[in-house]
Design goal:
The complex is a heterodimer of chains A (235) and B (385). Chain A is α/β, with parallel strands linked by helices and 235 residues long. Chain A has a single domain, classed as Rossmann fold (3-Layer(aba) Sandwich), CATH 3.40.50. Helices cover 31% and strands 28% of the residues of chain A. In chain A, strands 6-7-8-3-9-10 form a six-stranded mixed sheet. In chain A, strands 2-1-4-5 form a four-stranded antiparallel sheet, covered by helices on one side. In chain A, strand 4 and strand 5 form a beta hairpin. The radius of gyration of chain A is 18 Å and the shape is globular. Chain A starts with 9 loop residues before the first strand and ends with a strand. By secondary structure, chain B is α+β, with helices and mostly antiparallel strands. Chain B has two domains: 173 residues, no CATH class; 175 residues, no CATH class. Chain B is built from 15 helices and twelve strands. In chain B, helix 1 packs across helix 13, helix 11 packs antiparallel against helix 13 and helix 11 runs parallel beside helix 14. Chain B is elongated. In chain B, 41% of the residues are buried. Classes of the chains: A alpha/beta (235), B alpha+beta (385).
């Protein structure tokens, strides 16, 4: 992905990360450098423990590197204090998790409305926007349903609606189809594809599934904390 | 919208757990309120004491009498407006469990000093006229069904024999805090009978009640009264009515302290139960707190969810507990009869109950709040609740 003429949306420069486990330092990422242009759909693949989820977390601003910098739209997020980083995430990042991570006590509509409460927006506007987003992901008829009343695929669609309702710059998806059957997984991937093509959303997706990764424009392969291969996929 | 909705729906998420916790808090707050009311009832006499009344008794002990002749000497002390007297009778009505205080009094001077006892004019006249008459308080009358004209036999313990009295009046209190569990009869009737049976015990009183011209001079007048009888056969101890009542209560202070301690122990126990509930709750929801933080919600929002839920449960339990305290106190008072002259849930007790419930909610949430606010997003997202 390096070498793109237009300034990248995400610039990861010399990032390293390690964790302490049982008194031992375990390196997870070593000197990663990577650019992601705006509008990209990037798949991150690699075996367990290769550091792909850690890289995703760093790009999403929910973890901090030991060394290096990560700039998103020109903002070095590794230098932001915790409170500012939280505000930055609310405005710039949409999260799609493997297990959906919806609030079980909130309806689909309330779950999608939730991130909008952090924006200065009146209740009516929030509601209208959440409704429109649920319509967009094809759940206009399930707005009042609670997560326990929805299938896995439907829950993931609610989670995607929650991720895009604030119109973030980047969507990060960690194994978004990992908990779904093939049919539901196809639907979710198709939806993500639409978000990328129709709405121009930049998507970074971690996956084990080669078929899921092939929906991306390009795939980065990680192994033992290092980037070792990069595939451009035909569109 | 989302904060309150999340708090309330989270509180109702595990209905059985929440219901059991609320029941625990209800029982604790109810018990706390009842025990505090018992303690307050113990001190009720002292609370109602008038600042312008002194009680003079034998310096050795309450069980030693004073000569009636002291009355005139006390009346002559500067600052004394009026003097009356009373004897503790200690009789038994039907069986020892039927306890109520009985006093032999000099009706006119005594009742003039206690304007808080409200007696209908006609009944007061009838009581004063009849030397074997009795004046009973409303609570006492209600407890044993005494009515004007009834004969009440008492078996004497200090003054042996069976004594019969005719109820001539029923007095009410000026307010709910006035003791209406007492039984008054004529000191003259007691004295005349004692004279016939045991001459040496006649013309003696248990206490002198002294009314002051100026309540601010209580200390000086007390000293002057006691100085007058210093080095006599019956030295006196004079104190304010409040000090006298508290001194009386202090004889059983260990019981009061024990009740008070138990009332707080109950709160500590429910605090531990509630803290356990909230700790379990926070542990189960770590992935939700991490998700909220990932979405950009600040730690204070997440901590607020835990605190709100804890307070909602504690206050709900507290409110039900407080509401139940009133009927429970009435039932308790009815069960113990006249053992406690005044048994009322005070406003202060309700305030303490509310404070205890809020404290339980606050303290129980403290550590889970901290844990929720400080949850590491990456680790929290891995924790599937």
């Amino acid at each position: 992905m390096s070498g793109v003429a237009a300034p990248p949306l995400v610039r990861v420069a010399g990032v390293s990360k390690s964790y302490r486990r049982g008194g031992q330092v375990v390196p997870v990422l070593a000197d990663i450098t990577l650019d992601i242009p705006g509008g990209a759909f990037l798949g991150l693949m690699g075996p367990s423990g290769s550091g792909k989820s850690t890289l995703l977390n760093l790009i999403a601003g929910i973890d901090k590197p030991d060394a290096g910098s990560i700039a998103v739209a020109g903002v070095d997020i590794t230098r932001l204090p915790e409170a500012e980083l939280a505000d930055w995430r609310a405005a710039n990042v949409g999260f799609i998790f493997q297990f959906y991570n919806l609030m079980p006590v909130l309806s689909a509509l309330e779950n999608v409305e939730l991130p909008l409460t952090l924006a200065r927006m009146d209740r009516r506007e929030r509601r209208e926007r959440a409704q429109a987003t649920l319509e967009l992901v094809g759940l206009g008829d399930r707005m009042e349903h609670f997560p326990s009343e929805l299938s896995g695929g439907q829950q993931q669609r609610v989670a995607i609606a929650r991720a895009i309702v604030t119109d973030p710059r980047i969507l990060v998806a960690d194994e978004p189809t990992g908990d779904l059957d093939r049919h539901s997984a196809e639907e979710i991937l198709a939806l993500m594809d639409r978000l990328n093509v129709d709405l121009g959303k930049t998507i970074v997706m971690v996956t084990h599934d080669r078929r899921a990764a092939e929906r991306a424009h390009s795939i980065m392969h990680l192994e033992k904390g290092e980037l070792f291969a990069h595939e451009e996929l035909p569109r | 919208m989302p904060f309150l909705v999340l708090v309330l729906r989270n509180a109702l998420r595990h209905k059985l757990r929440t219901a059991l916790t609320v029941v625990g808090i209800v029982v604790a707050i109810l018990s706390f309120g009842l025990l505090q009311t018992i303690v307050a009832a113990w001190y009720a006499g002292a609370d109602k004491a008038a600042p312008d009344r002194l009680v003079t008794r034998n310096a050795i002990s309450l069980t030693f009498p004073l000569p009636l002749a002291y009355r005139d000497k006390v009346r002559a002390v500067a600052g004394v407006k009026a003097v009356s007297y009373a004897n503790w009778f200690g009789g038994i009505y039907q069986k020892p469990a039927n306890f109520f205080p009985q006093f032999a009094i000099e009706p006119e001077s005594y009742l003039a000093m206690y304007p808080e006892y409200r007696v209908p004019e006609e009944e007061l006249r009838a009581f004063v006229r009849d030397r074997k008459g009795a004046l009973v308080g409303r609570k006492l009358a209600d407890t044993y069904g005494f009515r004007v004209g009834d004969t009440v036999p008492l078996r004497g313990t200090i003054y042996p024999g069976t004594w019969e009295f005719t109820v001539r009046g029923i007095y009410d209190g000026e307010d709910a805090k006035t003791d209406t569990s007492q039984f008054f009869f004529h000191w003259d009737y007691l004295n005349e009978t004692v004279k016939k049976r045991s001459r040496g015990r006649a013309d003696q009183v248990g206490v002198l009640i002294v009314q002051l011209e100026d309540a601010d001079r209580a200390a000086a007048v007390s000293e002057a009264i006691d100085a007058q009888f210093a080095s006599s056969l019956a030295e006196t101890l004079t104190e304010t009515e409040r000090a006298f009542q508290i001194g009386f209560v202090k004889q059983t202070e260990a019981i009061v302290v024990a009740i008070r301690v138990v009332s707080y122990v109950v709160i500590v126990i429910i605090l531990a139960v509630m803290a356990n509930t909230m700790a379990m709750t926070a542990r189960e929801r770590l992935s939700e707190y991490a998700t909220l933080k990932a979405l950009g919600f600040p730690p204070v929002f997440v901590a607020g969810l835990v605190l709100g839920e804890s307070l909602a449960i504690a206050v709900a339990g507290g409110a039900i507990g407080i509401a139940l305290t009133f009927p429970a106190a009435d039932a308790f008072a009815a069960r113990v009869g006249t053992l406690f002259p005044v048994f009322q849930v005070a406003q202060g007790t309700v305030g303490l109950q509310l404070a205890a419930a809020a404290l339980v909610g606050l303290v129980a949430a403290a550590l889970p709040m901290r844990r929720a606010a400080r949850v590491n997003i990456v680790e929290g997202l891995r924790a599937i609740g």
